[in-house]
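hey so u asked for the seq, here:
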Amino acid sequence: MKKIVLLRHGESEWNRENRFTGWTDVDLSEKGVAEAARAGETLLREGFRFGCAYTSFLKRAVRTLDIVLDRMNEDWIPVTKSWRLNEKHYGMLQGLNKRETAEKYGDEQVHVWRRSYDVAPEPLAADDPRNPHFDPRYAGVPAAELPATESLRDTVARTMPYWQCEILPSLARYDQVLVVAHGNSLRGIVKHLKGISDEAISEFNLPTATPYVFEFGEGLNCVKDYFLGDPDEIARLMQAVADQGRA
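ran it, structure tokens below
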């Protein structure tokens, strides 16, 4: 059975501080490093052996992948990085505390910004130093494709071509593939694989560093999906993610 494991990065410093992160390149927290190590140990214990791995351009995902592969003694496998797996761009919200923002604008508005399918926050100005146009890692990306803000729909639009043309076809060569990315870029992939509606996806939350396994049958059709870990603990972690944007 062919398998792809989706893994959200471990807790970042801005996750710990409950801040909107988006494309801001923050590191893992101490807890995030430990979460990544546990994820690697879980995957090793469950018998996974990856043929290749994919991640984003952002440090919190790259470091999570490095730690996971180190724990699995698979540091040598080919790794491909793509900006298309980056987190949803949160525009002018980047850096703001989620709880304080909810106190100012209300829980419902913050939920819309965080979890709605087609509503994007206010964009960064063209001359804002946080704009990705000024970041050398995106020098090879066409200027028209670099976002100043994104909705989940926008994130899906840049992520899914990479999934369809690069990640999924890699199962023709490898039996098991690992994708370490971000809450929203991975939610877009999950939405596609499970056929989740635009409305229902707003209630789906991915916990940090919890392996999510998808199994594929003939024709690379998804036939099964499941998290690795205790179901009650995973449900608690999902609720904790949902609660981050409440006043």
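The first strand starts at residue 2 and ends at 8. The mean pLDDT is 94.
lmk if thats what u needed
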